[in-house]
Fold this protein.
Amino acid sequence: MNKNDPSPTRILLVDDEPDLLSGLKRSFAKRLPDVNVLTAASGNEALDILSVQDVALVLMDIMMGDMDGLEALDRIRSNAPDQTVILMTGYGTIELAVDAIRRGAWDFVTKPLELDNLTRILQKGLERSRLIEENKELRSKISSAGSVPEFIGQSPTMQRLYETIKTSATSEYTVLIRGASGTGKELCARAIHRLSPRSAKPFIMVNCPAIPENLLESELFGYSKGAFTGADKDHAGLFSLANGGTLCLDEIGDIPVNLQTKLLRVLQEQEIKPLGADTSTKIDVRIIASTNADLEKKITEGKFREDLYYRLEVLTLHMPPLIEITEDIPLLANFFLKKAGAEPNVSEKSFSETALTPLFQHNWPGNIRELQNVIRRAVLFCPGSVIDQKHLKLGTPPPALGTTINQDADKEMIPYKEAKESCLDSFTRQYVHRLLKQCNGNISQAARLSDLTRAALQKIIRRYDIDGNQFR
Ligand SMILES: Nc1ncnc2c1ncn2[C@@H]1O[C@H](COP(=O)(O)OP(=O)(O)OP(=O)(O)O)[C@@H](O)[C@H]1O
């Protein structure tokens, strides 16, 4: 179980044949020297022991006198649903064993017992219990006092952030969330809403750059019938849909200046005027804005209204880049490992003792999202159950424009799928870099030139953590 836990790892053998119990106990003392072996001669005795002792694994016979193993299994699992139970069965009772697995036993072994095989199964079962225990500890750390649901990280910087999130949630002021891509701005906006008195009302996230400029105004404020050709009925905008709740304007720095003026009016008056409507409608919406952009620079360039800036930045939250909270890397990495391991068709995996070391030297341009992707990839591509340094492929800077992708003959061969994915990654990076360079970072123009929709292009830019500002 937990390495730091002073209590020993215990297994409980349950069988009504005393000779088998004592024989197994002797064998395990040699084969599993770090494990404390307890024995019980009946289902009832096993339940008594489990009610007072922490036991990592139960190895139990199906056929017993007082209570059969299946009934004991049900009772054990109703008290401790995660308990690892392995059942022993004779050849004639395999159907019972299959039934046992359905009822939650972790595995079964057939008698006569083959000790090498049984020891291997016990070791795997103990590893499962250890992972479950670690997971519980992690969860309790996460839900400990200073944290915010769904946020991982216990560094002083994150603790301060949690305090600010909680304070922001109790107020009605506009919040501006600033930080680089992948630092958790969206997660933060959702947390503020969820912790606020508005949590039962809608939370609407608007990815501003993904909506074409000519549609953004009608998407936000709505339109009335006849406002333009094709407007054959009234259309509620996102502000109306968010009424009573929170509207998050993601990448606010990208909205056109004329719309900024209208937005400022909405913030001041708390009312909206749909396109083509004669009158304004009162709304009750809390605004959160987030940005990765240098708004101050945009103000000096005339691309962002200063008055809107002051209106928005009443409460400003700064999301730390991962490089500033490296002490949180182990917690985050383990969290993403469990998350990826819980996906369908993926088996549970753990990190080797030294696996995480290189993660502390990396500069993490894509921040927490990049870490999440690195762990996800490792879980998918690691063939065994232990993830080591070689499975954690850290990103390299994009190749210089114009370089070709080649697999040097003397380089170690990697699996075809992995090689193909890596070529595709390099190609996409090179392509988007050239594209944005040619369009001076103008997304609309780049979308037209590449024949991609703005939303699809934005998605690629985000996925590859490309900083669009460097091309402007
Ligand atoms: N502290 C954290 N704990 C757990 N998961 C996190 C944390 N911060 C970010 N994540 C995860 O990392 C991913 C990226 O986070 P998010 O989308 O909120 O970042 P962002 O700053 O909004 O990025 P972008 O600017 O590119 O939209 C998400 O899957 C999110 O759940």
Summary: The chain is about 45% helix and 15% strand. The chain has four domains: 9-142, 156-318, 322-395, 400-472. Residues 151-153, 179, 181-187, 292, 368-369, 372, 462 surround adenosine-5'-triphosphate (CB under 6 Å).
